[in-house]
Specification:
Length: 357
Amino acid sequence: MQELRNKYISAIADAADEATLEDVRLAAVGKKGEVSLKMRELGKMNPEERQIAGPALNALKNEINSALVARKVSLADAALEDRLRNEWLDVTLPSRRRGQGSIHPVSQVTEEVTAIFADMGFAVAEGPQVDSDWYNFDALNIPDHHPARAEMDTFYMYRSESDNQPPHVLRTHTSPVQLRSMEKMGAPLRIICPGGVYRADYDQTHTPMFHQVEGLAVDKDISMANLKWALEEFVKAFFEVDEVELRFRASHFPFTEPSAEVDIRCSWAGGQLKVGEGDDWLEILGSGMVHPKVLKAGGIDPNEWQGFAFGMGIDRIAMLKYGIPDLRAFFDSDLRWLHHYGFGSLDQPSLQGGLSR
């Protein structure tokens, strides 16, 4: 056994690489290795011989295995040092040339809408995407039994039973920003509120998170005629046409009275949308005169002030203007899609220089 020990300990120390080390392991303690074969001979020995040879063989096997592990670690360390010494990177080399980035259609259309309404004197207002159900529902005259408040439609935030705070939701529209703006700035007021909103829906034309822009104008003598003019000017500028025809259809929204859905005259000849011509009608937004209860919730006296409001989906009007067939593609993070539909990062939409490419 001493000869076996000297033989294999020396062979392990002399192994120059892991392949040689594996050969030594197989020759010593592999299934047919010398030490393994010696251990099989224990069954042929008498009890006295086995009592002496057994512990000695186990000790030899353990010593060889420990030497194998130590040598393997030593070889790995040596290989790493060699790589670190021979493999290096010159960080002073110039970087690879990269193409210019592009702007997402949602960002582009948001900028277009902002530029159009800014020209009409509307400021941009923003607010939290997680808001209390008072701002999201109660202050907007949406009653407790309204279906929009059901958990199947609205994402409610978790709260413990001991939490005394009012329920919070992922906002279902940007209307809470209108309330906060009325509280903060009072009247007169003229704002648009673009941003992300959330509803529990997912298909070709609906996603759980999407983008809206809502508008609010509050003054003493404001009317539906002012609303109609503002929307006509917006549609002409956004779709870059000289003439449009809008159709107002009576509808119901809890936060406006009277309320109307707005259609635009269009043509779908050849599968392409053309605004301002043809015999088809396309619904694009909802609107109306702000309900007195909403004005009062925002701290504005409805006996002295009145206003109009409107709201539309940014993703939807982007799909209409730029021929994007599936809303879900907006959120797929597909660079090929973005390269096709994206906009130049240095192109700033303006009414004077042109909104789109």
